[in-house]
Each structure stands twice: as structure tokens, then as C-alpha cells.
Amino acid sequence: MTESTYRIRGETAEWEVVIGLEVHAQVTSNAKLFSGASTEFGAEPNTQVSLVDAAMPGMLPVPNRECIRQAVRTGMAIDAEINRWSRFDRKNYFYADLPQGYQISQLYHPLVGEGHLEVEVDGSLKTIGVERIHVEQDAGKLMHDQHPSMSYVDLNRSGVALMEIVSRPDMRSPAEAGAYLTKLRSILRYVGSCDGNMDQGSMRADVNVSVRKPGDELGTRTETKNVNSVRFVMQAIEHEAMRQVELLESGGTIVQETRLFNPDTGTTRSMRSKEDAHDYRYFPDPDLLPLELDEAFLEECRASLPELPDAKRARYTDAGIGAYNAGVLTAEVETARWFDALLATGANPTQAANWVTSELFGALNRTGTSIEQSSVSPAQAAELLALVADGTLSGSLAKQVFEVMLKTGQDPVAIVEERGLKQTSDTGAIEAVIAEVMAKNPNQLEQYRGGKEALFGFFVGQTMKAMGGKANPAVVNELLKKALS
Fold it and tell me: Within 13 A of 363's CA, how many CA atoms are on the CB side?
């Protein structure tokens, strides 16, 4: 583990940035934390609101077992302490989109205790501590652009289950924060506890930033709320740190406050003074019993965890796949699943990795298609790679077959048969074409035999062109060397 050397050079001194993230991740579940209302994204306003979510008199919350299970599984995935006894608290404040006048959260006894994530930045590994994961309900949403003089309230999100994943203030640069958030999102998606769709609001980060001279006590921090992309988190940190340094060096003081990030300008602005815990008048929720987890429940959660990104990447590198390709193939869970299905066919790991990261990714990027929507299945990809391995197809012919597969969804063997794309190793036919190429290019032949060996590639290209790309390149090279000598 190495310490970051990221510093802000001010007019009077160098400054160190101290960063902590509070990530709000919407729990993957077909119902809300304390009601049976749907959580599907994009529904018409106020169509997914139960009487509990609307805080009708006499309505009592009932914890959703699946939401608790997903939070526990997430804790296990980051090697965190799972608290067998936890409790819900009421956090009291008024918003127009919070019908109860309080949020049910977990301040004093969270479901998940301390854990950690290991991230890589500029080739160095760093461990970022996670202080806690607590489960809480989301508020609704105010819409200010629907009417010239009124705000509308949409309660569809009211009561949606959130995991608040609180890091230690261990990050020292925008790059470390970006790596942490990227890694956390990847783990959540592998576990299946959150879809990680930051653009839809199902994962967002509150960014805590302070600055200090290296070695000094921690400075006063600000919190920038609800930042919804990794890039924006990094921008918010950079801007906020610079703002604080300039303010301190001009003789000002940092106010502990909540700020908002403007993605159009890359700047932050003040929203309100930062409240402390005592301002919310927390107390145990009287309608909810404490959560008590037994060993059978914990064992079921542990057994349900998939192979996680770090373990998968290690397995790939052990199989001979380069570290860079292994990182690319494990970054997104859908890619890793597709690639695992390809490996399950017996495909050569190194060749398969090279083909997926170059040919397949190139085609998907070109067409704007996700790997889940690919018209080429892992089984078809394995078949194509096998045709190259056994000499049926050359590299160039394989590219042609792949293009047809993308357009038609056909199997490669059928395409090869239908279109006569099979590679030939017929030495007699190749020798005849070589003789013809040499006869048509006497000047190049004379130059080659006079010592200009770079022209060998010219003769290879002419021979392959004359044979429509169907000649076996290895055989062509061997026969050309004999004919030209």
C-alpha cells in the first residue's frame, strides 16, 4: 500500500485532500423496505405508493426480508462485520416529499459494521476502510419544472430501500475516490444487491471533502450531495478542494455545509448549513422490533455469494490471460458471465480473451450494443475460434465470417459452407498462384533477389489477394520462401 502523492499547490503551501464517500445504493428488490409497493423505475408519478409509504394513520411498517438479506450479502462481499443485532431509528426532519415527517434509518446500531475495499490506482494498491452499511428508506421526489409557481410531489421513491455505505476518510485524491466508487459499483452488481444505474438514481454519492497541510489535523469538511457518476464525483472533489484552498489562503474559513454539484459547470454551490446528528432528534423506532439474525440466515447469505471481481480476475490471470485483459473482462458482471460461458466450452483462455477484447468489443462499440444484446452467443464464438485453431479459417476469413454472424446470427460452420470461405492449404494451387504473381511482378522479384527483403510482404499480400484471402498464410509463407530463394 502506498500513500497518494496528490497535492494542491497553493500560493503559500502544499495542501492534502481528505475524502470520504457516503454511497446510497438502492437495494435490488421487487418491493419497498417496509411495504409491498413496487420499486420499478420509470412508472407514472404516485402510482407505486402504498398506505404505509403515504404515512396514512395506523399504518405499520413491516421489514422486507429480501432487503435485509441483500444488505447482509453486500457486507459479506467487502469482508465486513455483520451485526447479528441491529435496530431502526427515526431521523426527524421535514421535507414536502417525506410524508411521515421522519426517515426510518439506523444510526446507533447498523446492520453491517467495518469492512474494506482494495483499489488499484496508478499501479499501486490501497485499502479503503468502510465504516458501516446501514439500511434506510428513501424519500420521495419534488419536481420543480412541472408548473410555473408550484412544485409537484412524486412519492414513488418514498420507502424504497437504500443501503448507505459509509467509507472512512481514507481517500487522498480524485483518482482514489473514482477507483473506490468504480470498485464498489462492480461488487454491488456482481452480488446483485444494486443495479448500479447511477443515471437512474439507484446509486449516488455524497462527497465529503476537506483540505489540510500534510500532517496537520483534519480540516472542516463540506458534503456535496447526490452526485450521480464516477466522473462527476472526481470533478466535484477537484473543484471543492481548490475552492477550499483558495478560501483558506485568502484568510477565510471553511463552513461545514451541504453543497450541490452542477455537472454543466463542474462547480459546487452552497445548499444549506450541515446538520449534526443531534439536530435530527434520533430515537429508536417504536413500531419496529430490533433485527436479530440467526446463523442459518447468515450461512444462506454467505452461500449465495458469487465469485467476486478480484477472485475472478485472479482466476483469469492464472489461466494465462494478461492482467489488462483480465481487468477489462471482469469490470462488468455481464461481460464476465458471457466470457465464463465461452471458457466453459473449452476455448483457449488467452485466444478467447484477445478475441473478445478486440473483435467482439469492437463490433459492440461500433453498433452501440451491449454484450447481453449481442447476436453472437458464447457457443458460436467458441465455434468460430475452433475453426481458426484447426486451420479451417485464416484470421482475415474469420473476420469476414464474424461480420456475417453479427448481421444474421448464423452459426460460423454454416456460413463457411454456404459461402465457400474455407481456408485452403492445397500446396499445388498455392504454388501455381505464386508462380503467376512472380511472373506479373518481375521488377519487384529482381529487387527482392537483389537484397530488398522487405518486399517479401508484398509477395505475401499479392498471393493472398489472388486467392481471395482463402490461402493458409503459414503455407503461403513457406512456399514463397522456397520460390523466391
Answer: 18
CB count in 10 Å sphere of residue 484: 15
Report the topology of domain 427-484.
Arc Repressor Mutant, subunit A (1.10.10)
Entry pTM: 0.86
Secondary-structure breakdown of the chain: helix, strand, coil percentages, each rounded to the nearest 5:
40, 20, 40
Q: Are 421 and 400 in contact (CB under 8 A)?
A: yes
Contact 222, 254 (CB under 8 A): yes
How far apart are the C-alpha atoms of 58 and 79, rounded to whole Å? 40
Domain coordinates in residue numbering, the chain: 8-300, 307-419, 427-484
Q: Spell out the SS3 assignment of 254-293.
A: CCCEEEEEECCCCEEEEEEECCCHHHHCCEECCCCCCEEC
Q: From the CA atom positions of the chain, what is the Rg in Å?
A: 30
C-alpha distances (whole Å) from 338 to each of 49, 57, 238, 325, 401 are 37, 50, 37, 14, 20
Q: Using one digit for the tens of pLDDT, what is the confidence trace for 117-172?
A: 999 998 899 999 999 999 999 999 999 999 999 999 999 999 999 999 999 999 99
